[in-house]
Amino acid sequence: xxxxxxxxxxxxxxxxxxxxxxxxxxxxxxxxxxxxxxxxxxxxxxxxxxxxxxxxxxxxxxxxxxxxxxxxxxxxxxxxxxxxxxxxxxxxxxxxxxxxxxxxxxxxxxxxxxxxxxxxxxxxxxxxxxxxxxxxxxxxxxxxxxxxxxxxxxxxxxxxxxxxxxxxxxxxxxxxxxxxxx
Length: 182
Known about the structure:
By secondary structure, the protein is an alpha/beta fold.
């Protein structure tokens, strides 16, 4: 099976699996992941973080955003402009609009400098412990991360953690994957 077909098939399976995830199991795993994130050196040292405004099947990112604001961290969210991903500052007063792939994004297009981002919390449908990631298929994060020099981290629910993932030369590995068991 060609690589793109294999990835697409896996995306469909993962979306289905995450849609059917027991809410209490998801909540327990999420709490474990938040605790690990908030006590990690990466989090504590980062002044500027990126995070997505999650889709329903994903880990809820609101607790991460709230904790960052309480610690006076700068929170950035992705925005797609002409097939390119940038990050814009996100505050409680930020006006949002539904953007690409039904993800909420800021109305503003003020791009935050990539080199000033300390920690990117990278979303995905599936991960491996060594840092492979299966995204949603548009390639936005892989292109953005290709020359990103800061830290990257993903939070993986147990149902997102796989032994192996198909990958190609354009796929960028995540430096650290947190799982509920860690």
